[in-house]
Amino acid sequence: MINPLYDQLFGSHFGKSSPFLRLADGSVVTYAAFLGLAAQMAHVLKQGGLQPGDRLAAQVQKSPEALALYAACVQAGVVFLPLNTAYTTEELSYFIEDSGARMIICDAKVEQALSSITARLELSLKTLNADGSGTLKDGALFMPKAFPTVVRSADDLAALLYTSGTTGRSKGAMLSQANLLSNAFTLAKEWRFTSEDVLLHALPIFHTHGLFVATNVTLVVGASMIFLPQFNVDQLVNLMQQATVLMGVPTFYTRLLDHPRFDRQLASGMRLFVSGSAPLLAETHFQFEDRTGHCILERYGMTETNMNTSNPYDGERRAGTVGLPLPEVEVKVTDPETGATLPVGTVGQIEVRGPNVFKGYWQMPEKTAAELRADGFFVTGDLGKIDKDGYLHIVGRNKDLIISGGYNIYPKEIELVLDAQPGVFESAVIGVPHRDLGEAVIGVIVAEPGGHPDLDQIMAAIQTPLARFKHPKRLVLVDELPRNTMAKVQKDILRKKFKDAFHAV
Ligand code: MLC
Ligand code: AMP
Questions:
Q1: Number of structural domains in the chain
Q2: Which domain holds residue 118?
Q3: What angle do CA 139, 66, 91 make, to 5 degrees?
Q4: What are 150-162's pLDDT values in tens digits?
Q5: Dihedrals φ, ψ of 141, to 5°?
Q6: Nearest ligand, measured from the Cα of 431
Q7: What 3-state class would DSSP assign to 13?
Q8: Which residues line ligand 2 (CB under 6 A)?
Q9: Other CB atoms closer than 10 Å to residue 163's CB: what's the count?
Q10: Over 430-456, what HEC string results?
Q11: 271 with 373, same domain?
Q12: Which of the ligands is closest to the CA of residue 164?
């Protein structure tokens, strides 16, 4: 094998006329067409000067071409760095600079906004628009539909995925080919994937869930995906009878339950519903079972680790738990102070080790050392307990993180922006329960003495530095922030105070 990830996920399907992507308009992209396009793109990357190990940053709308770009990077030995389409130019600039990306692929609409950074860093930029058009495709059209796959080893980096940090500075998680491959094969087996499966794919493809879990598992067995540009509940309901599997964040499931046409009949051809990226309420699990007869299979993962645990395919899918460790993955619950393993049923920090665990944070050896122990255990920052049957329960987080609709939002990043606004003395950003998104962001602001912060102006000012999904859904003014004796802001008190802020939503 000269390039394990390419050879095992993509190359094995080269030239096959079976469908890979089924699009909403009824058209089909076969494996042959997809891999031909990926090969053409790999030529473009090579001609653009990309060497094996170079990073390519992509902020592109979901499309068959965008997915082919992932395959092209793997084939050309280039490290793929996908970026949320909601990120602002300011956010993008950080990722591009920090990663030392050599090429950026973006929508033509943002080309101009990125011109100063591309000029300063002498970066090559190509465009890929939502409809697949752009200079990347223009260049690819004239290239051969086969590409000599670049030699890579299982230990080489395949992707760099940024995850926000508690200090407000995002960290690039380095994922090797082996990390991705081990998880893809494990999940395909555990979840009984076959080439007959049709996965309803409505997740974004810039995160682990939509890019690796959903796509790689499909590729392992040569199945197909109904590939939708974004989540739309009506579309999901209309297409469900053509599918066998759905993977989604909990919001997908609560929205399906709110849909009048979603019932047992509609779900009767489905064999599996998978949920992850955020906690699925036990209540949602039971409502779903009542409505459809299906037990949602909840699993637990992270950008840094891919998937760690899963409820069983056969056997009890226990509501409110994230299941059992996957084969070859070790999970333990430890004392945050001493690192000692805690007994069954005791809450502590969750640590994981296995072939799925990343190689560390890009150019951040101290952060890597702080979270990835020398013995290979990664300290997840999640709090949980293992019950007597071995099921893992996640009960909270040791990190100041909000998960809203499956997107991670780090309060510190927002607080830094709020604190810099005129009239603001300080702020605290919290997540409170939200029926649709699980958690929603509230910004709690204290005015400077004599200051009168204008909340509308603040909302307008945060547009430039922060992606829309990070914006507080509400800003509130308070006289002071509650603090403990160590002067630390007591966010739990704030969360309690504002817990019903979105009650009626
Ligand atoms: C959109 N908005 C959000 C939001 N998504 N706000 C907070 N949290 C979110 N998740 C905002 C938009 O900015 C916009 O704001 C308004 O809501 C409507 O936008 P939209 O695009 O119409 O939203 P919608 O399509 O309804 O999206 C909701 C969603 C989407 C839940 C379908 O967020 C989504 O696809 N989430 C999946 C995230 C994901 O894949 N996570 C996996 C991470 S990997 P305004 O103000 O302009 O109206 C990982 C590892 C693992 O965690 O274990 O899997
Ligand atoms: P990310 O950094 O986007 O990869 O998010 C990873 C985090 O999502 C984890 O550390 C958990 O806090 C959370 N998460 C993922 N899956 C689940 C789940 N099934 N239940 C609860 N939290 C989850």
A1: 3
A2: 4-152
A3: 105
A4: 999 999 999 999 9
A5: -55, -30
A6: 1
A7: helix
A8: 163, 208, 276-279, 298, 300-303, 322, 380-382, 394, 397, 403, 408
A9: 18
A10: EEEEECCCEEEEEEEEEECCCCCCCHH
A11: yes
A12: 2
